[in-house]
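1st attempt posting a full record on here, be nice pls
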Amino acid sequence: MKRPIKVTDAPQAIGPYSQGQFIQLTDSRLIYTSGQIALDPESGNLVPGGIAEQTEQALKNLAAVLRGAGCQMADIVKTTVYLADMQDFQAMNEVYAKHFGEAPPARTTIAAAGLPKSARVEIDAVAWRRAV
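the predicted structure (as tokens):
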């Protein structure tokens, strides 16, 4: 079974995509999220501040989408981080590390020529959880 994830406590899609996809396997769940940028879910605007504040909000939005699928950040097995400027790598890493602890997911970080709404960072994830 596959179904789109649609939650109100994360920003609504600003294009033709879902916030994430919920996939029910026989004995587990596999969730693919869309990239999350630092939009405030209520205003739809980028949060004020620099890369640290934007990374924090993008991860909060990612957590909200995962909650919509009955998952949490600890269920993430892979992320992709897109940075508008690789000079932001260290500052992004400092915030990112606080959310994943001792067993962080696999990750790819790449520089992107441009991100939606001129964001500094965008993060997507794949999460896995054994079915309840």
